[in-house]
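DNA helicase RecQ: structure tokens wanted.
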Amino acid sequence: MITKEKILSHLKSYFGYDSFRLNQEKIIDDILAKKDLLAIMPTGGGKSLCFQLPALLLEGTAIVISPLIALMKDQVDALKANGIAAEFYNSTQEQSEREKVLSELVKGEIKLLYISPETLPIIQSYFSKITISLIAIDEAHCISSWGHDFRPAYTELGTLKALFPASPILGFTATADHATQDDILNQLNIPNAKKHVSSFDRKNLYLEVRPGQDRLKQILEFLESKPDESGIIYCLSRKGTETVAKKLIDKGYKAQAYHAGIQTAERNQIQDDFVNDRTPIIVATIAFGMGIDKSNVRWVIHYNMPKNIESYYQEIGRSGRDGLPAHTLLFYSFADVIQLRQFLKDTPTEKFQLAKLERMQQFSEALSCRRMVLLGYFGEYISEDCGNCDICKTPPKYFDGTILAKKVCSAVARLKENEALGMVVDVLRGAKTSAVFNKSYQNIKTYGQASDVSWIELQQYIIQMINQGILEIRFHENGRLLLTPLAKKVLFEDEQVKLAKQKPKEERTKKARVAATKSYGLFEKLRTLRQQIATEENVPAYIVFSDAALKDMEVILPKNNVEFMQVSGVGEAKKSKYGERFLTAIKTHLEEDNKNKQNQKVPTQDQTYMLFEKGLSISEIALQRNLKEDTIYGHLMKKHQEGENIDVEKYISENEINAIKQAKLKFPEEEGLKPYFEFFEEKMPYWKIRLGLYLIGE
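Answer:
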């Protein structure tokens, strides 16, 4: 019998974790009970551990099927770094390597074998000679024609259950709506398998959408605050990737273009440079990233809008996989919508894909919490704003746009509902173009009636009217605008229309312009050491340790091997290989830091308060001081205790204070904050718990 103690012992010894995340424990329990299942978990949510840990505990070899050949080596290297017997078998290997893998497989020396679906028919005959502990199918959405990334080779996997009835069949994916989930189970011939659907909420990802004007200029401003950070810029076209990459290089950035038209060897080298932190910025089509398990991507930019929310979610999911904060930025323009509709024209699932594109457009145009829209698409609903998207951080200012809306509706009517958005804007602004004059539109009554509104602003207001159902756009009829029944109410019944004022450009980019302080603290020193070790071992840096592990070292400041084992991500193998070097680096830093502190005259909370007094936000202070936001809140609480006039109560709601008050009845004071954190299912941050207890005690 596999006990709970043994499971947790393996979790710490091999993977360096003390506890499970999300639904991991429930999924692992079902796998150990040899049950078929489908697990929907967000990228970075720990899917791989769900089958890797049971593979160590069960007798035999686990077969892992993945479409991502480029990812197999990275995953196997990571497993080997943790002292686990793992191998992959695919077409990139020499014949002698493949024969060696098969020999070890038959001898029972491999606990996890990674293969592609195309490879399965080649080596399936060997499976009758071994005990198969489980069969895990990664990126399981690829088996469904309803999914966003259908792969024909996956359809052959439906025979596995009949061939190996004693082995649990496990589907794993990060992106599947309800229709796709059911189709996956049917295609895999496990229709009654249990579904484990974890939260799709990646709280560490900041979601931002901006209008697609002056994109390159905005990107350059954005990058000013991201020195030395890894990121991906996605473009729709190959030419787009090359153009953007060249302009970034011309501005002094290390960047490379990546698309399917580049020779395989060169593409592999570009990917390798990115994985190993030699090239921090990749400008790519969607062909890039699926085969990368790089945990320290700190930002993702969409130069163009993706064709559906699944693609968007998967692509932004390539950032912040280590759980640390990451920034996602989507540029949205109406031209992208038109282009994507053209791509989908006459495809077998055109109607279905157009509906998905419309949902993506709605997300881009949202004037309410973006995370609500994103999670709602996957059937997960939240009742409160997330506080970590552009809408929540700086809510739009609404104004009474009824008169402007009447002018727009009147123009659409006088143009006989036969013109697209661009022409409507030109007519309302009184443009003197040949297109306007050739049709004598300068003679209609609404010509020039909105000449005081800029072209871009008027375009955005009309898009809002489309989103509110006042106007309808007929994409299949050259994008012409039509009046809806609601438009008639606006025109003839004085129906009020609220429009959101576009934020000034300076306000939109303020955060990007905050000076980035080059950090030479402990984290940077540990990053440098990690890179040295990665170079010595010829593996990506994140395989040595993730950014999250380095951040944990920065917090714990371990002084010996026992304390080093408390770091998340440190198991027995990594303690033995790297412990001494990292402990030495931490000790040296602390000695230097103590010398510096002796010379430091201004207390750290006072430094924070000075910036707060200048009007900087919490996130801006944290960025400038290279500290966590949690720490900044703590500094402000200290200054409040010292008598400074800081309205700390605005950072916590009355409901949250009452919840903490109730929780306080359950825990003795000497137990600290961790019981509260676990009681609130890790959804309330430590700083807020600390603040609530402080206010209760006042």
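The longest strand covers residues 205-211. The chain has four domains: 4-197, 205-393, 397-502, 519-600.

Cheers.
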